[in-house]
Amino acid sequence: MVETVDKIMTRKVVTCSPETSIMDAAKKMRKKTISSVVVVLNKKPIGIVTERDFTRKVVSVNLDAKKNNVSKIMTSPVISIPPNTNIYYANEYMQKKKFRRFPVTNEKGELIGIITQRDLLDYFTAQRKKFVMGNLSKELRKSYPI
Between β-strands 15-16 and 36-41, what pairing exists: parallel, antiparallel or unpaired? Predict the structure, then answer.
């Protein structure tokens, strides 16, 4: 059985509006200990702001984070995926595009979750562990029949 991203995505996505100040977005990310915030308008993702954006578009050019909004530094348009996307396909696409995260949207285009490289890594690690433990159990049963 192939799993889909809705099984492992984070459902409580940290978001902000395009008018949110860069400083407020950074504080929200620090408070939640996350590396990105999804910018939404009418429940639909229109951009994403990452730690990298802060480095490249704020700090390195001395942009005033209190006076400027995230709309000035967000990556847009944002590519999202539907919740029924195959986990292996999402991983492959993420690697191909060099993305670290995908917003997950419903059929109306509304944000319902986010899938990250960490989510995928955790999933694949758990699958490998299940496989190894299952095979180890079989070998032990062969070696030590009851």
Answer: parallel
